[in-house]
């Protein structure tokens, strides 16, 4: 018989759990937080640049596809915030609860996760659309996500804003931290208006 020791049953599951725990620890670090913001923008710029390199002969159509991507992301932002982060999936809800308790914390998705998802999205779209269009649409969605993350960062870390419109925009999200069932949109209030989750103070209702 070979003298090599057999791995105990269930060791694969233990290793997987250890990897997940390591990723979870990394996700709460300052390095992951800032690297994540940088890679979100880099991936979006790479996809948009590749799209332009493949085909820049139809600027009007490209502009419409780009705006469509941002519009699609606005709903993704709302849907994830409302039905995942404040929904029934405990994994997402638990992490988002930490953010509500510590808005200046560094808890975030692993820096490699959003870029991997958006690259897979681009590949999937390329099965049904011309490559340039698929890259442009996924790049616009990725840029929407990057801007969402940056907006969230600025709202919580900038503190006070001088311009009244920017102040009001930031206040909309601060209201969400006091009324978690309202104002799910961070970059845009569009879907809150359309789906009835826009916060209206009691004084205005009367």
Please render the helix and strand layout as text.
Layout: H1 11-27, H2 30-54, H3 59-85, H4 90-101, H5 113-126, H6 131-158, H7 164-178, H8 190-195, H9 202-205
Characterise the protein shown here.
There is one protein chain. This protein is mostly helical. It has one domain (16-102, 110-205). The protein is 72% helix and 0% strand. It has nine helices and no strands. It has helices spanning 11-27, 30-54, 59-85, 90-101, 113-126, 131-158, 164-178, 190-195, 202-205. Helix 2 (30-54) runs antiparallel to helix 6 (131-158), helix 3 packs across helix 6 (131-158) and helix 5 packs antiparallel against helix 6. The longest helix is centred in the last third of the chain and has 28 residues, at 131-158. The protein is globular, with a radius of gyration of 21 Å.
* Structural class based on helices, strands and sheet pairing: mainly alpha
What string gives the helices and strands in order?
HHHHHHHHH
How large is the share of residues in beta strands?
under 5%
Helicity, in percent?
over 70%
| Number of structural units classed as domains | 1
Report low-confidence residues grouped into runs of 5 or more: 1-7
For the biggest sheet, the summary is:
none
Average pLDDT, all residues:
84
- Provide the gyration radius in Å: 21 Å
How would you sum up the global shape? globular
For the record, give the distance between the C-alpha atoms at the N and C termini, rounded to a whole number.
84 Å
- How many alpha or pi helices? 9
- Secondary structure: number of strands: 0
